[in-house]
Every structure is written in C-alpha cells, then in structure tokens.
C-alpha cells in the first residue's frame, strides 16, 4: 500500500520504463528520468522521485504527522493554484495514508462482542447527531439518511444517484437512479435541481428521510434547501475539498453557511462511506448509459 502513496523503483537503470511505472507504482521511473533531455525537467522529475523516498523514510521512522502535514501543505498549494486534479490526487493519497495507519478492529473483538458491527454504526450515528445538533437543533433522529450525487462526462450520459442508509448501513432496496432529462446536462446545478424536484414528487411513495446529504458545496445545497423547505427535512452538503460539511443556518437560508471540516474519526468514516457509495452508484449507471450510447452510435 505504501508504494501506491509514494511510488519508488526497485530496479537498476535501464533503457525502458519498467512495468511498475505503467501502473503508477514507479512514478517517475528512473529509466524515464534518464531519457529526459531538458535539464530543467529532468531536475524536476528527480526532485519528485527523491521526495517520495524521503517521505518513505520518514514514514518508516515513525514521523507520520510530519509526512501528513507535508502532504496537506502540498494539497493546499495545488488547490490555491487551481490545480484541482493534483489537489484531489494528493487528498486521495492522504486518505490512503490514514487508512493504513488507522487502528483496525481485530477478529477477536467480534468474537467477544457479536454485536460489535451494530455498536460501531450506532456510535458513528450518535457522534454525527451530536455534531449536527449544534447547528441544526431540529434534528431528532438519523435513522434514514439519503445522499445524492451527479455523474457525467462533459454533459454526456448525465445521471444521478440516491443512496439510502438505514441505521448507518446501506439499504439498496431504497436506492434510486436518475437519468438527467434536461438538455444542458453539463450544468451540475440544474441537474441537481431536476433530481431534487423528482425526489420531492416521490416523497410519500419512497419515504421521508431524516437527513439529506448533497455531494457538493453551498450552490448544490441551496437547491435542495429550497425544494425541501416546506417538508422540514434537514439538508447538508459535503464538499470534496478537505472533506468539509456545509451546514446551513436554516432551512430557507442560503446565506450563513457554515463550513465544518471533519476530523479523523467516527463522523468522517460514516460520511465518507455514504458519499463514496453515492458516487459509486452514480458512476456505475453513468458508465452503463455511456457504453450504451457508444454502441448505438456504432450501429
């Protein structure tokens, strides 16, 4: 796993890029570095490679916090420079680093407590409610949480997903796919508005959630807030940048948004699990429709 975070080489210098470089485990490959003719670009590639080696040494020496802070600093710089792709890549690496260093529940723990899985889920929900109630005192329970996400490729085959978690666990019987009908499907805001309205029309038929989580920032959140204001359903957003909750000051308020960055722990685990499932479900349907459209074009 560490090699997926900090790629490195385990071979001698050769003429061709190694096999591992093709799957991102040796990046930049020393073989490729040696072939770079420009001295400036060669030095940049060398510094990148040596930085990976230094991070590996620091990690193995137990300086985890130093490594993580360095990665967060680089992520913020990329974000500030509007290099969001690199920022997202670094964010994913930070998440992988936290995953491999987080404490794991042993098998013996499950043997000692057969209800451990349910206990962990209830603890996550309790911590989540404790956090939200500071800003949204009207929240009474979090038995049913729904999360919405939109997926498309430059407006092609735009889809959206609704995933439902009951008592902190995914319940696929309540999942729903949405095929975006509007013409300008590249507009995420309009796509979200369409999804919110279609969900509202089926509020009684599909059931009423205790909380709606929208994958996005204040813009996407405000759309759902307006649609569900009369139904008194709490809605929050989840911005991908730094895993930040976007919490409104009220049901109708699109101002006074509070950004709450989630620390490592139970709430982050729960929210990430919900958001990742919504993303997976939306992407799966999007890929299906996109593949179908390519097949139809070839006819």
UniProtKB/TrEMBL annotation:
Residues 121-222 form the UvrC family homology region profile domain. Gene3D superfamilies: UVR domain, UvrC, RNAse H endonuclease domain. InterPro entries: UVR_dom (IPR001943), UVR_dom_sf (IPR036876), UvrABC_protein_C (IPR050066), UvrC_RNase_H_dom (IPR001162), UvrC_RNase_H_dom_sf (IPR038476). GO terms for molecular function: excinuclease ABC activity. GO terms for biological process: DNA damage response. It comes from the Bacteria. Pfam families: UVR, UvrC_RNaseH_dom. PANTHER family: UVRABC SYSTEM PROTEIN C (PTHR30562:SF1), UVRC/OXIDOREDUCTASE (PTHR30562). This is Excinuclease ABC C subunit domain protein.
């Amino acid at each position: 796993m560490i090699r997926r975070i900090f790629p490195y080489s385990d071979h001698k210098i050769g003429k061709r890029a190694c096999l591992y470089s093709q799957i991102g485990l040796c990046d930049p490959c020393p073989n490729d570095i040696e072939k770079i003719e420009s001295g400036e670009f060669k030095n940049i590639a060398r510094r990148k490679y040596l930085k990976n080696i230094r991070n590996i040494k620091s990690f193995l020496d137990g300086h985890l916090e130093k490594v993580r802070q360095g990665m967060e600093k680089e992520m913020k710089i990329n974000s500030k420079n509007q290099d969001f792709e690199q920022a997202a890549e670094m964010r994913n690496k930070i998440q992988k680093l936290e995953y491999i260093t987080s404490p794991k529940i042993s098998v013996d723990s499950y043997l000692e407590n057969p209800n451990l899985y349910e206990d962990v889920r209830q603890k996550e929900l309790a911590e989540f409610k404790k956090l939200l109630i500071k800003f949204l005192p009207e929240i009474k329970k979090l038995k049913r949480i729904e999360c919405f996400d939109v997926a498309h490729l430059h407006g092609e085959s735009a889809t959206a997903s609704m995933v439902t978690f009951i008592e902190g666990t995914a319940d696929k019987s309540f999942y729903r796919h949405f095929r975006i009908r509007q013409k300008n499907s590249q507009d995420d805001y309009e796509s979200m508005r369409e999804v919110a309205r279609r969900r509202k029309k089926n509020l009684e038929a599909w059931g009423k959630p205790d909380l709606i989580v929208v994958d996005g920032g204040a813009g996407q959140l405000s759309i759902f807030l307006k649609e569900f204001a009369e139904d008194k359903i709490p809605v929050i957003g989840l911005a991908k940048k730094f895993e930040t909750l976007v919490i409104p000051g009220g049901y109708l308020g699109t101002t006074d948004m509070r950004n709450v960055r989630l620390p490592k722990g139970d709430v982050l685990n729960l929210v990430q699990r919900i958001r990742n499932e919504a993303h997976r479900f939306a992407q799966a349907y999007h890929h299906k429709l996109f593949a179908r459209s390519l097949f139809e074009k070839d006819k």
